[in-house]
Design goal:
206 residues, alpha+beta, Ribosomal Protein S4 Delta 41, Chain A, domain 1, Structural Genomics Hypothetical 15.5 Kd Protein In mrcA-pckA Intergenic Region, Chain A, 2 domains, five-stranded antiparallel sheet, 5 strands, globular
Length: 206
């Protein structure tokens, strides 16, 4: 199944939580969650849908998948890869997602959303170790250096930098040269979003 390309605020309303899919809007009063808007398709205030254990597991998986802008096939591949590693499967899964190139660009504040970061990478605005990379799913490694191609400055770069995002500890970011270096692997507490990875592992393990 392809990545959803419809109104992204609808996805946040469906989950009842912010997925940070629309950059600056998500931090403003215009956010549909801040306005306490109803979930899409609800019939009224008294309408309540009973949630099963399976539904709760599925909803968490869908939420994380949409947050990182992945297809079901991609997300399943990350899960399979994480099960083959020695660490805790849930933490390894989040580590794989965090090391995606488009996510690194988003975490440093060079893009206002992962969707925008994905577009910047696809358009060839960044180089990894002086080699042009246009694959959003490219997995960065420790000591990798990501630089901006000076010949192709992204048009929305200044707007993104105005948001003043603080990069996580595993990334160093020079705001003057706009160089990014991966200094260590991400840890579980480096992921700011509220994710219950246990529910995802239980879903795939059934």
């Amino acid at each position: 199944m392809a990545v959803y390309h419809g109104p992204v605020c609808r996805l946040c309303r469906r989950d009842g939580k912010k997925l940070f899919l629309k950059g600056k809007r998500c931090s403003s009063t215009k956010c549909s969650i801040e306005k306490n808007r109803k979930r899409p398709g609800e019939l009224g205030k008294g309408f309540m849908r009973k949630e099963t254990d399976y539904g709760r597991h599925l909803r968490e998986k869908q939420r994380v998948k949409r947050m990182y802008r992945l297809t079901e096939h991609q997300f399943r591949n990350y899960f399979e890869k994480s099960t083959r590693k020695k660490g805790v499967t849930g933490e390894e899964l989040l580590k794989e997602l965090e090391l995606r190139l488009d996510n690194v660009i988003y975490r440093t504040g060079l893009a206002r959303s992962r969707m925008e970061a994905r577009q910047l990478v696809t358009h060839g605005h960044f180089m990894v170790n002086n080699r042009r990379v246009d694959i959003p799913s490219y997995a960065v490694k420790v000591t990798d250096v990501i630089t901006l191609r000076k010949t192709k400055v992204p048009p929305n770069l200044e707007d993104a930098l105005l948001m003043k995002v603080t990069p996580p500890k595993w990334i160093t970011f020079d705001k003057e040269s706009l160089n990014i270096e991966i200094v260590s692997l991400p840890r579980r507490d480096d992921v700011p979003e509220e994710i219950e990875e246990r529910l995802i592992i239980e879903l795939y393990s059934k």
